[in-house]
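Escalated from tier 1: adenosine-5'-triphosphate holo job.
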Amino acid sequence: MQAASLLARHLGCRRGDRWLFHGVDIALSSGEALHLVAPNGVGKSSLMRILAGLLPASTLDGPPAHVEWNGAVGLLDERHGLDMGQPLGEALAFWARLDGPVPQDALAALGLTPLLDVPVRYLSTGQKKRAALARLIGQNAPNWLLDEPLNGLDVDACALVEDIIYEHCAAGGTCIIASHQPLSLPDLRRMDLAEYAL
Ligand SMILES: Nc1ncnc2c1ncn2[C@@H]1O[C@H](COP(=O)(O)OP(=O)(O)OP(=O)(O)O)[C@@H](O)[C@H]1O
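Tier 2 regenerated the structure:
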């Protein structure tokens, strides 16, 4: 795996006229995972999008916001990005041509192998989430941003996602997980975004 790390400093977020949070610093080294928590609406998804480079950070005052990744970044959120009109196998193949293939053992572990002929629009909520995870794995990015990765998943699939995160970090990756659900991972750091809310 490529080198992985994150240094983010002085991050703030303003949506419309409203400030959500400010003064967020995050440093993650290879192998580290961070659980991002906060009540609804505090700005977890907004912070994830800032870290992914999809939303500009704001600063209330003081030094400018700064996000520095070592290695590529993969974002998993509610937008799975898979063509609803295509069978799952073809929808994943589209991304495989850009990112690289999803390993067969990952497809099997995620329970997707028997679903490759099923149109994405017919997949259940949890099956679509599993498919989005497969796409993320295919990206081979060393840094992961997972926004509510356990939503819609059954108990066994939640445990599987924890295993996948564990293996990703054990291989030297980083992972930030925004989730309302408890996570069982060794050495998991925790950040409560509400402490930075305005
Ligand atoms: N495009 C937008 N324009 C203006 N405000 C927005 C936009 N997107 C989100 N917001 C607002 O920003 C706030 C934070 O939203 P965000 O989704 O980041 O919170 P969250 O902590 O992830 O919430 P949840 O736990 O419910 O997922 C909310 O009040 C939301 O209404």
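The mean pLDDT is 95.
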